[in-house]
Amino acid sequence: MEASGRQASAERSKARADADAGVAGSALYFDRVSKHFGGVMALSDVSLPVMPGEFVSIVGPSGCGKSTLLNLCSGLTMADAGTTHFQGEPVTGINTRVGYVPQDATLFPWLTVRENVGLSLKIKQVPRKDREERVRNWISMVGLEGFEGHYPRQLSGGMQKRCSIARTLVYQPDVVLLDEPFGPLDALTRLGLQSELLNIWRRTGTTFVFVTHDLNEAISLSTKIVVMSRRPGRVRAVIPVELEEPRDIYQIAESEGFAKLHGELWEYVRAEL
Question: Which of the listed ranges 13-17, 144-148, 243-247 does the model predict with the highest average pLDDT?
């Protein structure tokens, strides 16, 4: 009995040491987080590191806590147990150091594309010359040149989403959280935006955490995929994506290893439906 107790204590100490090491080197670290909403447990004992520069997709059944994980990172909600760490520090309130791209574009209708993209820089009192240059660069990067003076009502859904992404990335957050940002869009528009997002990730080295229900999308974009269980959400599997680089979004389904990876991912997801 005593030996068994010592072994259990040693295992707990090792787990704690591993967690501390993970926190120190990570961009984000969920350390045994749990979250309830009323009488419903959304997340249970989730531990997960996200390393700098990774593109991590989170998949799983509806209601398994995918969006809740993003809200813990951003400080929009707090865990009931465990700790969410950002760059080694506990998240204890609204985390202004992350960028957040929600499902809807949420652009201000009374502002033009240029004004929407530059709003966060204006609030932060970035000097005007620097602000204008950064806004111009990001409008170009997301393919909205020529639409700088347009209002959201004058843009297509895909263009609004491009503007939303530029507005988030223009202030250069180290980590960007994306909650099914391409869900409502048609298939061709989705492919175009996936390609743009992948190019932005390559250019900037920003850490992306991306929630999606689309397995093809997760494989196409990610360096690793986290599969969540049905509610209460737990980490069911973490699957590395090791497809040949550079990836071509339009042809990636034909690349070697894609079908096998999709099959492996589907088996995990199907078991949780």
Answer: 144-148
Instruction: Confirm if 57 and 217 have CB atoms less than 8 A apart.
Output: yes
Over residues 202-229, the pLDDT tens digits come to 999 999 999 999 999 999 999 999 999 9
**Residue 40: what pLDDT?**
92
Question: Could you tell me the pTM of the whole model?
Answer: 0.90
- Give 127's contacts (C-beta < 8 A, 6+ positions apart): none
Strand partners for 227 = 59, 237
Give me the DSSP letters along the chain.
-HHHHHHHHHHHHHHHHHHHHHHHH-SEEEEEEEEEETTEEEEEEEEEEE-TT-EEEEE-STTSSHHHHHHHHHTSS--SEEEEEETTEE--S--TTEEEE-SS----TTS-HHHHHHHHHHHTT--HHHHHHHHHHHHHHTT-TT-TT--GGGS-HHHHHHHHHHHHHTT--SEEEEESTTTTS-HHHHHHHHHHHHHHHHHH--EEEEE-S-HHHHHHH-SEEEEEPSSSB-EEEEEE----SS--TTTGGGSTTHHHHHHHHHHHHHTT-
